[in-house]
Amino acid sequence: MPAATSFANFGYFATALIATAAVAVAAGIQFLLVGWRRGGDRTSQAFAVLCLCVATLAFGRAGVYSAQTLPHAMLALRVLAGAVLLALPALMFFVAGYTNRPMPRRLAVAVLLLTLGMSVLNLFEPGTVMYASVQAAAPLQLPWGETLYAIDGTRSASGRVFYWLCYAAFAWTFYRALRQCAAHDQRLRGAMLLACLLVQFLALLWSTVVIDAMGRPYPATDAFAFLSFVLLMGLWLVGQMRTHTAQLERTAAQLRAEAATRHQAEQSLRHAAWHDALTGLPNRLHALDRLCGLLDDAERSGLHGSVLLVDLDHFKTINESLGHRFGDLLLQAVAERLSDAVPDAIAVARLGGDEFLVLLCPTSADAATAARRGTAMAAHVLAHLAKPLVVERRPQAIGASIGVASFPDAGVGAADIVRRADIALHRAKAAGRHAARLFEPQMQAEADVRLELERGLRLALQRDELTLHFQPQVDAAGRLAGAEALLRWRNPAQGMLLPGGFIHIAEETGLIHALGLWVVDAACSQLREWHRQGLAAGIHLSINVSPWQITQPQFADDLAAHVRAAGIEPAALTLELTESALLGDFDAARQTLQQLSDAGFRLSLDDFGTGYSSLASLQQLPLDELKIDRSFVLALQPGSANPLAGFIVDIGKRLGMTTVAEGVETAEQQTTLAALGCNLMQGHFIGMPMPAEEFQHWLAARHATDAVPVGAP
User: Fold this and answer.
1) Domains defined for the chain, CATH in brackets
2) What's the chain's average pLDDT?
3) Which residues, in sequence order, are CB contacts of 527 under 8 Å at separation 6+?
4) What's this model's pTM, rounded to 2 decimal places?
């Protein structure tokens, strides 16, 4: 047949089928790509297979209707039937994915096996899977004059099975679509699927039932019905993409918000970790980190810098009198003042409390120059801080003490540099405050010795290294009247230490309370022993009391109970305290002394004349003794008048107090004091401080020589 006549039946209808096939192929390719980009989305892949099947169906229909001979029509029919067979499982898999309800495994296997079996039949049966026999029929004449090739045949048993399978597949898909419509959030999607399935099913009925029932030749429209599926999936894809895009945008916005919140939180945490909450200055951790960096820079460059440790004087008093809120405001004002005073500092930090650290950049060629620069800056800071600060309209003057330390030094880290500045700071405070001191190597040695003493003192009570020595007190006639218990520490490294070497450490560390209790216990134990031996008749034992003990509210009651529990009457003990015990809260001290006096203790004011007690306050205290300081006794030289010792004796007589002179070294001093009317005396001339056993022997010998032991007048 000539080529010109081979396409004689190819007209508008066939062209529409080819166009439908092209649309289906394009949709299939599109959804293959979508499924691949979505990581193997099975729903998109199933729809892509369905599209290719429908494209093949459309091409097959076009081949049948445009054929010139029966063999050509049969070939197109076989392709058409194979496409329909593959389209059925593809449709079911697509609907299962679209409705989010996967097909049961057994059903899927059964559908695939049936499709495979019928596809084999379609390849080898003479009339395809649908017909037992096929013959050419009268051409179809379309209303617009187009003629289509037509075939007719007897439907085979496999063909009837095939159509019933099609109906069953559509019934299953309708069921799935209706269930999706019943779900509230899937109603629209289910309705769209149901509408498309209905259109496709009506096209199937038109091609298989209606045309036969009407007895009139009409072309099949099942390929055109597939366009509704393309429209459905297009709308679905757009909706999915919009939803996905909106989700991505929301997720991105949430991630951006979370990132901003996290960044802000990290910044806040970093600021809180590295800065002081009250003043906003760098804190101790930040300052030490900066100092470590400065040490590295200084070691590389060979330059030297310095640090200033600033501590406010009497800040605790301001807090107690004006309140912590005012104290916080004052610290903020001091922080600003410090920052203004040293604008070229690397950092001004608050270490805690009322301590500030100033880091000066290493710019000096040697340590001595850096030390001079640091000392000069400390003097400038002191002058700057001395100017009154106005806090809440209240002018407030505040002083400071400063310790200066230079860096770097081989093997010395940042914490050690600050510790050196702290040692120098304590020296500045000990010098009277409002001063600056530069760290010197001997300060470290002294601090190490002090630390060793503090450690040793904490262990001294446990190791039984403390002992009491006793120095006798006699009256003007030389008769024994009492003794003073003097604390000694048998230090393993330094030997016997006097109280002046360690009492101040005990007071600063709070050990004085345990130490004082030990002294009371040891004194009471010794008195019991003397009583047992009959040697303590008429003897008063004097023990020293620290001002820190007097400040304890329950000191008087606790001491009285403790002494009585030891089997000693409080009247047997004389408590000696210095005038410094009266410099703080005088009323509280007076109340404590009155409680001690009421409990039966005798009270003695030690080192009288060297402190700051006024005669008016002296009259208000329940004192029994005045002790004349050894400096006034040493001034009693032969042929020279010393009105101060006599003046103290006169005061004691007028106030009804016993006067005791300590530090009597010569017979002349004893004679002079007796002539002045001093009641009791003690010193090396009278008797050296002796250990308990030696003093007991001395006491026994003295008791044997004294006919009548005399107590204190």
Assistant:
1) 3-246 (1.20.1070), 284-439 (3.30.70.270), 463-705 (3.20.20.450)
2) 84
3) 536, 541, 568, 572
4) 0.57
